[in-house]
Amino acid sequence: MSVTEICVISFGYLHGAPPEAHLTLDLRRHFRDPHVDPALRDLTAHDLPVRRAVLTTPGIRESVLAAALVAEAYDAGPTAAPLTIAVGCAGGRHRAATVAMVLASRLTKTIAPARLVHRDLDKPVVER
């Protein structure tokens, strides 16, 4: 195994620059934003309705799989090193946090324990 540690960071682009990472997933433009639903706007990825909305969005599960495959490719490399994957959306409360949770769980099962960091999950809703 060449990945010595894995860190998956969720973040919101509207709260600042993306964290430094080996792989950054930008979920802003291609995937449905739960923020537009008033019933979900003030909720976060800690809430089942948000997770359900994100995970039933076409293409999301395939994106998680693709990111996991990239992580496995890093793991197959000849040099041991840490791996950081950043997952971003507009505010960091819905899409990014949900995808980061699922990805970290998958990587923990397939490669090594993944540390999950939600940079912006607990920040206020960004009014747009």
UniProtKB/TrEMBL annotation:
InterPro entries: RapZ-like, RapZ_C. It holds the Pfam family PapZ_C. Residues 5-121 form the RapZ C-terminal domain. This is RapZ C-terminal domain-containing protein. It comes from Kitasatospora putterlickiae.
